Amino acid sequence: MIHLIRRWRQAIMDYPLVSGPLRFCSLKGVFPQYLRLHLPVAHRFVVKIDRNRSFIYHRAGQLDSLAYRIFWWQAFGFEPETSWVIARLTQTRSTFLDIGGFTGFYTTVALTLNPTIRTWTFEPSPRLFPVLTRNIQENGFEDRAVLINRAVCDTQSTASLFMPRDVASSMSTLSLDEVDGEQGEIVEVETMRLDDMFPLEHPVELIKVDVEGCEDLVMRGARAILQNQRPVWIIETQMDGPNDELNGIITEHSYRPYHLLPEGPVLSNAIIPDPSRRYLNYLLLPEESAGQVLSELIR
Fold it and tell me: Tell me: domain 77-296, CATH 3.40.190.10, correct?
């Protein structure tokens, strides 16, 4: 009986003439939260960035928390302190690397906002990669988006990737210390270095990293890019992640860390993750161009 009720609720929410008005009421703040929590997100829905631009999103599964946020509150409902920064910066750049791309949300935002940008999205999970591919294909971005089913690391080899039981979880990680008792499986995946894929003549301007505790490995494999190309980085940090290593790398390469908070990027002496775990993302800017980049982010 419970299974039938769930299927009935899902069928209703997959019908735009029903879910559309509910989403509108949610945006206006007149739809009770307890009802949202008991209604499933549609399998496929349109996400608005602004009045004129939108894209199609396929959720990864019932527990896709990203899908929940953008279904009820549109594109900037997910990580609002970070998503507007990525949206603003991708509009004035020609390349964007999305490392730990999940379902391709940030990649799709960039491609929707900037008709000339080219993106490279790395997602090692064999479960999530088909969802990522579907989101890019359904929006017609295949000619500007390169999708890579490999993990970014500091070596070109193979590694063990932990995948949670639920496909919608964003906790896939090479750092098995981060698993913390979660149920799932471990699979072997190919790894690669950014320096090997992007030679110096290939421009790299903006990099987003969300790799659940392996952020230092990504940056170690991009030392030539850090030294010579000087891209802007946006990195999600972890309370028990390799933050000392990250601080050492950004100091070595003369980068400044800015904590992404609701009031905007705030200069910090070092990467210090938020104890509340609400604001985990940092904007890393080369010292010589920090002022110029920050001027792009004046709201």
Answer: no
